[in-house]
Amino acid sequence: MNGFVQTLELELKRNSNAKIAAGQKAYMRNQFEFYGIKSPLRRQIQKPFLVKSYLPPKEDLEEIVKTLWNKPQREYQFIAQELVYKYIGQLNKNDIGLLEYMVTHKSWWDTVDYIAINLIGSYFTHFPEQLNSYIDRWLASGNIWLQRCCLLYQLKSKEKMDTQRLEYIIKNLLGSKEFFINKAIGWVLREYSKTNPNWVKNFTDTNDLANLSRREALRLLD
C-alpha cells in the first residue's frame, strides 16, 4: 500500500505546474490545493496505477483511498475515485461506508458527481436492498452532497429509471434553497427527458419546482 501511494506521489510531484495549480485553485474557490496537472496528463500519469493486473489487493482499497483522500492536492481525490471504480464488480455490502466517506469529506461537485453516478449508482444496482434505508437516511441528513447523490445515482438509468423513487426523492427536496440541489433536480429531469419527455413534462407541470430546476428540466423540451 505504501509503495503504491509513494510512487504515485512522486509521479504527481514530478509533473506539477505551479502556474496551472494557481488557476485551478482559484476556479475551485480556493478550497483545495492542486499540483497543476490538467486532466489529460493526469489520466496519462494514473494509467499504469489502474492497470487491472497490477491493482492492490481489494482488502487494501479502503486504506489507500482514505490515505489519498486526506492528502491536500485535489488530484489525489480524482485518482482515488477512479481507483474505486476499478473494483466496482468486487464491492461488498459494507463498502457503502467508504462511498459515504468520500462524499462527505472534501465535498464538492467535481468528486461528488463522479461518486454518485459511477460508484453509488453501480453499488445500488448490486445491492438494491440497501436503497430504501440509505436514500431515506441521506435525504434526512441535511448534507446537501448526500442529498445530491440521491438525485444523481440514477442519472444514467434511461429506460430503467425508477420514476416512483425519483419522484419521492425530488418531492422530499422541494423548497430547498441550495443551488447544488436545485441544479441536480433539473439535471436528472433533463437527462430523463431524453428517454421519457412526457413523464418529465407532466412532472414539471404538476410540481412546484424551483425556477432553476424547472429551467434545467425543460431545456431540451422547450
Low-confidence stretches: none
Alpha carbon gap, first and last residue = 52 Å
CA-atom Rg in angstroms? 19 Å
Secondary structure tally: strands: 0
Counting helices, strands and paired strands, the structural category is mainly alpha
Order of helices and strands: HHHHHHHHHHHHH
Inertia-based shape: globular
Number of helices: 13
> Helical residue percent?
55-70%
Overall mean confidence score, pLDDT: 97
Portion in beta strands: under 5%
Oligomer: single chain
Largest sheet: none
Explain this structure to me?
The mean pLDDT is 97. The protein has helices at 2-14, 18-27, 39-46, 61-69, 74-85, 96-104, 109-126, 131-140, 144-152, 163-173, 179-193, 197-206, 211-217. Helix 4 packs antiparallel against helix 5 (74-85) and helix 11 (179-193) packs parallel to helix 13 (211-217). The chain has 13 helices and no strands. It is mainly alpha-helical and 222 residues long. It is globular. 64% of the residues lie in helices and 0% in strands.
